[in-house]
């Protein structure tokens, strides 16, 4: 049967998905499906596309794929049986998403470890993890910062530069073309005066050991990520063996990768994280397993009624697969099952069926169908009758006659002119019924008959053979001649010989000849023979093959261990090319086969045919283990490891190792243990004492020769004492020599690694306050009593300690010794600028150096002209003796000239490096003095300067207040706008005169109009309320408003027209009863304000609104 591969992933961008199920049979099979073990009919679902006469159906991607997710199985049946497919899992992946979450910032002190968890969502593999910033810049990874296999980002020790707010984990699922991002994470690393140095600790994996199971052919990935300070290094070993050559170390040594693991990669692996303060280990127990695999797949059979039928199904795998049998998809409960086979005794036609063998373990399932047909059937010749065959004289031809019958038929061929079967060396009848004729002759032309017979009957067909022309009809052209040049294509040894070129004219001819010699690799040696085989020695002889015109230089002898490693040929010996035999020393209990290759200048020959197998007798081992390593990972333990004997070196079954040890000079008797592994741990030992050790190999045949005794030490512990008499000799202002008395060897408690000097700066001698800077460490290997410490800062007070260390770690530190470094030259001034450049002078300003390295005694100013020519002016010097100076006016300069200026700070020791500046004097003297604004907040991006003159040129300079940040200096020349016509005084006067004249005309017109009225004053006032009175009644009287829509005084109106006009007939006499008073400027105050309030209340009551 043909089926779709499993699993089938429904990618969202694919248009459709085909579930294939095809089978052939006679009669034509019928198909049915199950989904998740339940009947499923794709023909009844209108959403699916089906094909007539086929079990295949197609799921279109119409947005409802999740309805079809599940495990499918197809069944093909006819009256002779039922065949089934393996399960096909149809997976509709969800779009993976990170959960929405609020992640609190991670705050750690400098030097501590940090783990940023990714926890990617589940999705269709493969999964790829990336750590990037918000702007998609990759997070740099190294020995200190790295990503684990689980996607987490590990910091072995955090530094201040790791502080950032946008650590983002991106998960990519390329199979569904999807990338998702996790909420950004923030890390805050707080500075500390001293980073705590510490031994390594594993961040991943946890515990002391891990058990790993993986499938043969997969990649083995073992990971160890450690924290500690200084950053630990990772080492990998395979316990009792060496790492395979194809092993790779990745991710800065933290990831061990072995691609396509094999059975030999099984075993115990160890990672070790080390730094100067100690180490930690983790063990991985790796088991290589295998999914079910066919050793013998059940085959379809056609058998006679009454015969015994054997159906075999042999599988291998690790863990051992479970095998189940079915007949037409029904458990074979009524069949006799013996281990890996079913036996049908005296089979009948009712036993005809499709037998299924299914094998499974935790790594997978395989299934095979075998069509078993039990019947008696006369021969049926499947090959078409009266077929025509053509052949070339001297070549061969095959006449087909394929037969189907039960029991099997006897097949014979005869010529048309004879009833007897064809005979002779040139005629061969194959098992499939075909007739092969070799070296055809002209007389072989004609008609042939194939006759098939069995107990049920017979059948026959005919075939006609025609003989074509000779070889010239099919000759291949391997020679090309063009312009007198003969070219031989694909040269071979048959082309070797003498070639002649003949040139002819009508009256003459000439001949030139050349000998062609063809070189090639030698032919393989022949007739290999083992002789003089005496137990574990033998002599191998052979006959060399043709060297093909290049002398054989040597022979390579290879052997195969047929029992342990069949097919793996290994070189055992090389001998000169003038020899044709070799004496071989062999290992015991090995089944050998040998072969030989010949080598010449062209290359190696094909290998010879191998010899017959020769098995040597078992003997005791010839040697003992080598490369014995004695290590002490813990103070009271001693680890003994050795390189095991290879399987071929065992010389026999039952290999074991006897480990013998005793404390040197203390014990006379040996402690002995027999083990099969390649390591042994001696517990409860004294700390770092010498032991004598020997490893003796043996097998069932006896012991190897007496082993050599080697010496090793038990586990180390930290040194218990500190160096004494630590003294400091100041060499100069940046280096000191430290000396000490060595730690006694009894206090080292291990192999001395050397000494470490830790020092830190307490303060500058210019500042009485003490501070604690970061510690600095220098390591000096070996047994020594002095060291040179460079890189110190002048004019500073320091403290240092000295400690011894071994492979276990550091011992206690000595008493701290304080010392002072002498004065040095200062750093360059932290800022140096020309702030006011005139025609003949330049104003200079500078700031003190950040590190003076002593008491400042002044400054040294140097300058010279550097106009754009090759010549420069003389270097002039000015000593500024005031150490508090920060400004200087440099005079007597040439106009329009470029100068280079140098400023150095000086102590009593000398002057330090120079800060430099370039400037060009102006063409004319600049007017005005510099004005300085108030300080501007650093967060602002602008500043308004007021009080400038119109139409005037100004120089504006922006500078840092502390004069340290040179990059903040900015200078530009601007010009203010000139006055417009509206700003001129004559224009303002003219406008005032026009306004006054207009006002006079308006007053005159108003007075003239009032004189022409004849109504009473009272009526006039009632008709025209006093504007001023209304204004006083307004609630907004004497109030200021920025509202552009405020009502004008006297513009109040009523919707009802009931507004009572203000009584302008009141006079000052009306207020005579009240205690009134005048203000100093003559205005009236007092109860008039109360009057106003009463009027306001009255107006509000009438429902006024502003127009």
From TrEMBL:
GO cellular component, as recorded: axon; plasma membrane
Any one GO molecular-function label of the UniProt entry: cell-cell adhesion mediator activity
Source domain of life: Eukaryota
Localization, UniProt: Cell membrane; Secreted, Extracellular space, Extracellular matrix
GO aspect biological process, one term: axon guidance
Ranges of residues in domain Fibronectin type-III: 524-619, 624-717, 722-824, 828-925
Annotated stretches, region: Disordered: 604-627, 1020-1089
Domain Ig-like residues, every copy: 1-85, 93-186, 200-287, 292-373, 379-466
Pfam families: Bravo_FIGEY, fn3, I-set, Ig_3
Keywords tagged on the record: Cell adhesion, Cell membrane, Disulfide bond, Extracellular matrix, Glycoprotein, Immunoglobulin domain, Membrane, Repeat, Secreted, Signal, Transmembrane, Transmembrane helix
Gene3D superfamilies linked: Immunoglobulins
Listed name of the protein: Neural cell adhesion molecule L1-like protein
Coiled coil: none
């Amino acid at each position: 049967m043909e089926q779709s591969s499993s699993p089938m992933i429904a990618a969202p961008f694919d248009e459709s998905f085909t579930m294939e199920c095809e089978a052939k049979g006679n009669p034509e099979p019928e198909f049915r499906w199950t989904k998740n073990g339940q009947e499923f009919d794709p023909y009844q679902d209108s959403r699916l596309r089906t094909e007539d006469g086929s079990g295949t159906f197609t799921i279109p991607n119409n947005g409802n794929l999740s309805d079809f997710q599940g495990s499918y199985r197809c069944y093909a049946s006819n009256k002779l049986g039922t065949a089934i497919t393996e399960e096909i899992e149809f997976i509709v992946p969800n779009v993976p998403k990170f959960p929405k979450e609020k992640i609190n910032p991670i705050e750690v002190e400098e030097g501590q470890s940090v783990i940023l968890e990714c926890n990617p969502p589940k999705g269709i593999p493969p999964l790829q993890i990336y750590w990037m910033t918000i702007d998609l810049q990759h997070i740099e990874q190294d020995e200190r910062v790295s990503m684990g296999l689980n996607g987490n980002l590990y910091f072995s020790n955090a530094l201040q530069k790791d502080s950032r707010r946008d650590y983002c984990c991106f998960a990519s699922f390329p199979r569904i073309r999807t990338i998702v991002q996790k909420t950004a994470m923030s890390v805050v690393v707080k500075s500390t005066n001293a980073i705590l140095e510490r031994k390594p600790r594993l961040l991943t994996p946890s515990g002391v050991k891990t058990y790993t199971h993986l499938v043969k052919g997969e990649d083995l990935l073992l990971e160890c990520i450690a924290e500690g300070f200084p950053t630990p290094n990772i080492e990998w070993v395979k316990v009792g063996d060496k790492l395979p050559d194809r092993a790779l170390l990745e991710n800065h040594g933290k990831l061990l990768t072995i691609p396509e693991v094999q059975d030999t990669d099984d075993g115990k692996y160890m990672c070790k994280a080390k730094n100067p303060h100690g180490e930690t280990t983790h063990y991985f127990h790796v088991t290589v397993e295998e999914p079910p695999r066919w050793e013998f797949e059940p085959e379809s059979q056609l058998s006679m009624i009454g015969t015994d039928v054997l159906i075999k199904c042999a599988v291998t795998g690790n863990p051992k697969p479970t095998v189940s049998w079915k007949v037409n998809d029904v458990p074979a409960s009524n069949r006799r099952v013996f281990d890996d086979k079913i036996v049908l005794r005296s089979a009948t036609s009712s036993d005809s069926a499709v037998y299924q063998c299914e094998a499974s373990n935790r790594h997978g399932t395989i299934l095979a169908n075998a069509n078993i047909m039990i019947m008696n059937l006369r021969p049926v010749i499947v090959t078409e009758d009266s077929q025509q065959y053509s052949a070339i004289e001297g070549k061969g031809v095959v006449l087909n006659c394929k037969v189907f019958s039960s029991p099997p038929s006897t097949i014979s061929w005869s010529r048309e002119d004879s009833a007897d079967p064809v005979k002779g060396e040139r005629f061969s009848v194959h098992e499939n019924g075909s007739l092969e004729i070799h070296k055809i002759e002209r007389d072989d032309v004609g008609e042939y008959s194939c006759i098939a017979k069995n107990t049920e009957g017979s059948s026959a067909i005919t075939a006609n053979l025609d003989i074509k022309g000779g070889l010239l009809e099919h000759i291949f052209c391997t020679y090309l001649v063009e312009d007198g040049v003969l070219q031989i294509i694909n040269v071979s040894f048959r082309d070797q010989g003498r070639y002649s070129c003949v040139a002819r004219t009508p009256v003459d001819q000439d001949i030139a000849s050349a000998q062609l010699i063809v070189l090639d690799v030698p032919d393989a040696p022949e007739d290999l023979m083992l002789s003089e085989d005496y137990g574990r020695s033998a002599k191998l002889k052979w006959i060399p093959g043709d060297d093909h015109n290049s002398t054989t230089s040597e022979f390579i002898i290879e052997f195969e261990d047929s029992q342990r490693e069949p097919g793996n040929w290994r070189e055992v010996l090389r001998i000169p090319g003038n020899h044709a035999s070799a004496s071989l020393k062999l290992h015991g209990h090995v089944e050998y086969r040998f072969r030989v290759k010949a080598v010449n200048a062209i290359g190696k020959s094909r290998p010879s045919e191998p010899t017959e197998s020769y098995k040597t007798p078992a003997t005791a081992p010839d040697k003992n283990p080598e490369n014995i390593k004695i290590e002490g990972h813990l103070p009271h333990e001693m680890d003994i490891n050795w390189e095991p004997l290879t399987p071929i070196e065992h010389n026999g079954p039952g290999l074991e190792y006897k480990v013998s040890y005793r404390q040197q000079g203390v014990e006379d008797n040996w402690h002995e243990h027999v083990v099969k592994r390649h390591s042994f741990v001696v517990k409860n030992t004294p700390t770092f004492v010498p032991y004598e050790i020997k490893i003796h190999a043996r097998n069932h045949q006896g012991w190897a020769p007496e082993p050599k005794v080697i010496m090793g030490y038990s586990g180390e512990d930290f040194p218990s004492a500190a160096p004494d008499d630590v003294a400091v000799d100041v060499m100069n202002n940046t280096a000191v020599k430290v000396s000490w008395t060595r730690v006694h060897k009894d206090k080292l408690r291990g192999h001395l690694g050397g000494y470490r000097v830790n020092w830190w700066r307490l303060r500058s001698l210019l500042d009485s306050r003490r501070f604690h800077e970061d510690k600095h460490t220098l390591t000096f290997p070996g047994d020594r009593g002095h060291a040179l410490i460079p890189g110190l800062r002048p004019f500073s007070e320091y403290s240092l300690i000295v400690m011894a260390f071994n492979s276990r770690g550091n011992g206690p530190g000595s008493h701290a010794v304080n010392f002072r470094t002498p004065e040095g030259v200062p750093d360059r001034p932290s800022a140096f600028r020309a702030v006011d450049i005139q025609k003949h002078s330049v104003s200079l300003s500078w700031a003190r150096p950040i590190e003076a390295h002593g008491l400042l005694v002044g400054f040294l100013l140097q300058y010279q002209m550097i106009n754009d020519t090759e010549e420069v002016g003389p270097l002039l010097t000015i000593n500024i003796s005031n150490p508090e100076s920060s400004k200087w006016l440099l005079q007597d300069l040439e106009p329009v000239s470029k100068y280079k200026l140098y400023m150095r700070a000086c102590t009593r020791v000398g002057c330090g490096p120079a800060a430099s500046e370039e400037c060009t004097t102006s063409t004319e003297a600049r007017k005005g003095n510099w004005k300085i604004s108030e300080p501007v907040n650093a967060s602002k991006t602008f500043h308004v300067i007021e009080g400038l003159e119109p139409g005037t040129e100004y120089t504006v300079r922006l500078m840092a207040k502390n004069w340290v940040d040179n990059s903040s200096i900015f200078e530009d020349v601007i010009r203010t706008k000139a006055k417009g016509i509206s700003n001129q005084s004559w224009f303002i006067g003219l406008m005032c005169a026009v306004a006054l004249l207009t006002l006079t005309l308006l007053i005159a017109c108003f007075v003239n109009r009032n004189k022409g009225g004849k109504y009473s004053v009272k009526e006039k006032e009632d008709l025209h309320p006093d504007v001023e009175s209304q204004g006083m009644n307004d609630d907004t009287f004497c109030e200021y408003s920025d509202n552009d829509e405020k009502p004008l005084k006297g513009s109040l109106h009523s919707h009802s027209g009931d507004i009572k006009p203000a009584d302008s007939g009141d006079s000052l006499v009306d207020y005579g009863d009240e205690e009134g008073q005048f203000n100093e400027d003559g205005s009236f105050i007092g109860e008039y304000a109360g009057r106003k309030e009463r009027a306001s209340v009255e107006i509000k009551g009438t429902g006024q609104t502003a127009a």
